[in-house]
Every structure is written in C-alpha cells, then in structure tokens.
C-alpha cells in the first residue's frame, strides 16, 4: 500500500501534520484538501504545526498553511512531531546519492544526469556528476556544482545564504536562483566552462572562470 503524502496526528498540544518528503508538492496539497474536507470541520479551532517541510519552498509551505487556516485551524510552532516519522530520503526521484562531509559542511553527491521531472533538494551543498536537463530541478541550502551542462532550474542558497554560488560546465537556457534573486534565462549556448553564477550588487551575475596559463 502506498504511503500517504499527508498524515495528521493528534497530540495534547494540537495537530501534527506530517508531510512525506518523498511526495511532490501537488500530491501534498491535494491530499491535505481532501482530508480537511473529509473532516467536515472537526479540526476547526485546533492548533497545528507542519512537519517535514525542509524540502519545500517558502511559498509552498505558506500555501499548505493557508489551506489549514481556511478550514479553521490555528498555526503554531509548538505542536511536536510524534515518534512515528517518515523516512526522509533525498532526493525524491530514484537517484542514488552519497553524503560527503567536506570541511565540516554538509554535502550531497549525485552520480547521474537529472532528467525532466526529477528534483534534488538538500540542506547543504550539492554536486551533480552529469547534466541537469530541461525540466529537472536542483535546490540547495549552499552551493551547487554541476559537472556537466545545465538547462534546468537551479536554486542555491535557499535559506538566506547570499554567499552561495553555482558552478557549471555549460549553460543552456537555464533558470538560476540564488537566495531571493532570480535570473530567468541564461543564453542558449555557453560551452567550454566552467561558469560561475553568484550575487553581486544585489543581482545575479555569471562569468567564465579563467583557466591557469
């Protein structure tokens, strides 16, 4: 039997709403609405806390909270998660990955090209040994290094980390985001990198790294 995208647990402090990080956002949203409708106002007036939101964008978390509030629930940061928790695997797509602690910082190594519909999200740095194709997505709390061409959506420095940067061997119509700054589209063909993207003067710039000699 498939796991639910949303699991609602009652505690003395209120409702702990557990999100399965292996499900996509649309599944979470649809199932949350379904369960709220099914409850027929039973949860109205209860405090709630969302758990398992680490891989969500802030706007996605806000949407889920707004749904709960629309059914009369009250947001709170004080409802603890019960002992039974989801097994949090990153990434959600079937990609084998290895955690690589470097200089005391969290890092994730993905040894595969990412294809359309695949998403990798991690709280630390991410290195991709392959391409990031159109429709693929990489989201990191730190830096992102792509040992291949990038044509997808890349978001570094998710947690207000403006010092984060992105390095890739090629850029092809990619959308780049660092913290809250967005570069909606890079040129079609930038080959023979590496190229670096970072924030400078409150906007994203990108340039080719000079090679020795």
From TrEMBL:
Family: Belongs to the MinC family.
Ranges for domain Septum formation inhibitor MinC N-terminal: 6-75
Keywords of this entry: Cell cycle, Cell division, Septation
Pfam family, one: MinC_C
Septum formation inhibitor MinC C-terminal domain: residues covered: 110-205
GO biological processes: cell morphogenesis; division septum assembly; regulation of cell division; regulation of cell septum assembly
Entry superkingdom: Bacteria
Cross-referenced NCBIfam families: minC
Function, in words: Cell division inhibitor that blocks the formation of polar Z ring septums. Rapidly oscillates between the poles of the cell to destabilize FtsZ filaments that have formed before they mature into polar Z rings. Prevents FtsZ polymerization.
Record protein name field: Probable septum site-determining protein MinC
Quaternary assembly: Interacts with MinD and FtsZ.
